[in-house]
Amino acid sequence: MNRKDSDLPNARPLSVPEQDASVIGLLRQLSREVPDLFTKELALAKAELQASLTTLKAGIAGVAGGAIVLLAGFIILLMSAVYGLSLFMAPWLAALIVGVVVMIVGFAMLQSGKKQFEPSNFKPDRTLDALSKDQEALRRKVS
């Protein structure tokens, strides 16, 4: 009988078909590449976390600087109140103006530093994007 195996009803193939061999090969390749992929994803997450920490440090420095300037402005305002009570004349007005200006500058610095603490600055966007691409690639390979 020189008929092909596919010609017989309910016939089982004698050897592993090419499609099954490629699936096994794909699974082997997948088992080799997945650990490598996770290692690279972890490295990317680490790099993004370090960048976020740098942003956090800059935000802390901005908030601390703003708080110091705001404190200096408050001290000058207190000095102006002392001048106002003791002299009832122009020196307290000058101290009041300087104190208000220093407080405005300190408040602006504080608001600028506070923007660094927004949650969107700490989200690992590149890692999440890479993970979704990897997930999609795995789906395409498996199916």
From TrEMBL:
Q: Which residues cross the membrane?
A: 60-83, 89-110
One matching Pfam family is Phage_holin_3_6
What the entry lists under InterPro entries is as follows: Phage_holin_3_6 (IPR009937)
Q: Which UniProt keywords apply?
A: Membrane, Transmembrane, Transmembrane helix
What protein name applies here? Phage holin family protein
